[in-house]
Amino acid sequence: MRIGVLALQGGVIEHINHLKDLDCETIEVRKPEELENLDGIILPGGESTTIGKLLKKTGLLDKLKEKIINGFPVWGTCAGMILLAKNIENDVVRHMQVMDITVKRNAYGSQINSFLIQKKINEVCTEKIPLVFIRAPYITKVNDDVHVLCKVNENIVAVRQFNMLATSFHPELTDNLQFHKYFINMCNNNYK
After folding, report:
1. Where is the active site (predicted)?
2. With 80 labelled, which of 50, 100, 183, 192 sits at a CA distance of 20 to 30 A?
3. How do residues 145-181 score in pLDDT, each as one tens digit?
4. Host domain of residue 95
């Protein structure tokens, strides 16, 4: 299993460390050619506007978008969710526009409003896991083929649509590996 982590900006090393703990080969993706021979990719949290600009500047945007449309497994955490969304409620800028979701940026407020909760997500694991929210977005609308995995206070914070996974929260900032295991399983079953 060889999984890439988009390494233009944001929480890259934390995802890499979790993947290595699960015996995955990892690659930091900064150039279009580094998308080859991967089983999936993680788009980390960070600053979505900055990452979006860098995707265009490096030539990664079109190639990554095409691969995702063709079934390449992708997981966007926080800013990564915003990059995947077809619609963003409070921003005129759109990025890849591949996932049938509408996202509200910074929906939980500023950095000072960050929080952690414990929640059981049935499709992912059998026990409660920690969910870390930092200047997090949430999803305000999904289309019919988007499966809602988790809500917090009626706000949608985790979804899956075919080969695409998106979370408002940051599993990479905890010691829990369940979400990374879930994504690895998606990569094993989806893109062969």
Report:
1. 78, 170, 172
2. 192
3. 999 999 999 999 999 999 999 999 999 999 999 999 9
4. 2-190
